[in-house]
Design goal:
Chain lengths: 268, 285
């Protein structure tokens, strides 16, 4: 595994990395106020891990960053460009879908439940976006996809269908699929929560290696050990707000807020 | 025969030679045999009466089964079914996409279409199209009667009716696809049409094929309704013969046997189509 993962960084290090700025983002689901004014800065090349109890709004926040979730107010920008909107004066005009889709090709998203396309082979899953969204020649995209597969340790699974793989293998394919667009920002939404405990490690290894490569990453997770090891910044969220943030040593080992302490005492 | 087994047991286990494990004996079902015998006898008697009853006139059935006019009628029934299914599902898919679109006008139009064409009997719709000339005597300066022959009326009438049902089948199929699939496609930057044709519809096919197979078989038989507007399909061509010869029963049998034969082939085809769209859903290879 280690020899496979070290080469992932080599593949990704060439791509430009993006910074993320989130300003006073609010989001309601009906009467539920899930995001209550989020401000967050993620510097280019840094890894931010978002922790918090279920329902704290961390997944929703992540989904606003690539406009899978529309904000009710506030702004999200990636590399200085607003995501999903165009600003004119004090108004935000939602972009046309075509432009939003173009923005999304710069942002990789990895889902909790993988969401691989079950009717397509592993290779077809990875090649789909480069070919149809970026108009890459299929031959070229396939060669790149095989390299990515090799680097997540699944070179022999190119022709398999997702259902024939273990959960850990599926998530590694999903990561390769996100990487195929060479995004400057990678978002992970609880990437190991749907996995059997013994399969968590292989996925975390791949993500760790990506972190070392210098791609900007925001990871929503419950894996405290992973946060300690990989994060530049740990963000703790509760009830739609960021309670505290800082280096892992600070937030995880000497949290300032009672709420953070209570949460950590339960999960550690 | 028992010796090698016994030695095997001895060498393999340290336990003393135990008696062999108890054998399982399923319940004896004497009643099953009696029921089966009664059913088979009744079936045999029925079959015998069909063969012996001269009124079936099997010789006449054989005489007309492959006659030129019957085969021409069969040909029309087949291509009419194929055309109506293809056009009906094309229009039905469009209607389903309209119905699921964000545009309230398109949603309402689609809903209204399905409501209207499912609310009226196909026979009435056909007769309406047949008499469309009474409503619109000319279209773009051409006499409607010359423009729309009975066959064209049959294609239009059946297709519009078929599309209403196809729309609901396709809509159900699209709704059966996991929402996460669409989000994944969006997050990868796939455009709307590509998402539909490459991601959603192929997965929707698993839910679409069984009811579509039902509709295909229904349509094949349903095309026989065009005999009321004098289109020479399979049924009407046999009717033309028995109006001349009065051999009603044997000619209806000719039509029946052809419908059964084609339907059987279609059912077999459905099995293979289903297997194709189930790819990637099984377990390990």
């Amino acid at each position: 595994m280690s020899s496979a993962t070290t080469t992932v960084s080599a593949a990704v290090s060439e791509t430009a990395t993006a910074k993320v700025e989130i300003r006073s983002v609010h989001k309601n689901f009906g009467p539920l106020h899930v995001l209550r004014g989020i401000d967050l800065d993620v510097r280019a090349g840094e890894v931010t891990v978002v922790l918090g109890p279920s329902g704290s709004g961390k997944s929703t926040l992540l989904r606003t960053i690539n406009h899978l979730e529309k904000v009710d107010s506030g702004t999200v920008s990636v590399d200085g460009t607003l995501v999903g909107y165009r600003r004119s004066g004090n108004r935000l005009y939602e972009l046309r879908e075509r432009d939003i889709l173009k923005q999304r090709t710069r942002i990789g998203f990895v889902f909790q439940n993988f969401h691989l396309f079950p009717h397509l082979t592993v290779l077809e899953n990875i090649v789909e976006a480069p070919v149809s969204a970026l108009k890459r020649p299929r031959k070229e995209a396939e060669a790149a996809a095989r390299k990515l597969l090799d680097r997540v340790g699944l070179a022999d699974k190119a022709e398999a269908y997702p259902k024939q793989l273990s959960g850990g293998q599926q998530q590694r394919v999903a990561i390769a699929r996100a990487l195929a667009l060479e995004p400057g920002l990678l978002l992970f939404d609880e990437p190991t929560s749907a996995l059997d405990p013994e399969l968590v490690g292989e996925v975390l290894d791949v993500i760790k290696d990506l972190a070392a490569s210098g791609t900007t990453m925001i990871v929503v997770t419950h894996e405290i050990g992973f946060a300690r090891e990989v994060a530049d910044t740990v963000v703790f969220m509760d009830e739609g707000r960021i309670v505290e943030q800082g280096p892992p040593a600070e937030v995880l080992d000497s949290p300032r807020h009672e709420r953070t302490r209570a949460f950590l005492s339960k999960v550690l | 025969m028992t010796t090698p087994l016994a030695t095997l047991v001895k060498t393999d286990s340290t336990a003393p030679p135990a008696e062999p494990p108890p054998r399982v004996v399923p319940t004896r079902r004497a009643g099953q045999w009696v029921t089966a015998a009664v059913v088979l006898v009744l079936l045999g008697l029925g079959l015998l009466s069909v063969v012996r009853n001269k009124a079936f006139q099997w010789d006449v059935v054989a005489q007309y089964f492959t006659s030129a006019s019957v085969l021409r009628g069969l040909g029309l029934t087949l291509w009419l079914t194929a055309l109506v299914m293809a056009l009906g599902f094309l229009l039905g898919t469009l209607l389903a996409v309209f119905r699921l679109s964000a545009n309230p006008v398109l949603r309402a139009v689609s809903w209204g279409y399905v409501w209207f064409f499912r609310s009226t009997p196909i026979l009435v719709q056909l007769l309406f199209w047949f008499n469309i000339g009474a409503l619109y005597p000319t279209v773009l300066g051409v006499h409607t009667v010359n423009l729309l022959g009975p066959v064209a009326v049959a294609v239009i009438g059946l297709t519009l009716h078929e599309a209403a049902y196809a729309a609901e089948v396709v809509r159900g199929g699209i709704l059966s696809v996991d929402r996460g699939q669409i989000e994944a496609a969006q997050s990868l930057g796939l455009g709307r049409l590509r998402r539909l044709t490459r991601i959603v519809l192929p997965q929707a096919m698993r839910a679409i094929v069984p009811p579509a197979g039902n509709m295909l078989i229904g349509t094949l038989k349903g095309t026989s309704i065009v005999s009321v507007i004098a289109v020479q399909d399979l049924l009407y061509s046999t009717q033309l013969i028995y109006h001349r010869t009065y051999e009603v029963i044997p000619l209806l049998l000719v039509a029946t046997l052809w419908y059964v034969a084609v339907t059987s082939v279609l059912s077999l085809g459905q099995h293979y189509v289903e297997r194709y769209y189930a790819r990637g859903t099984g377990g390990a290879r």
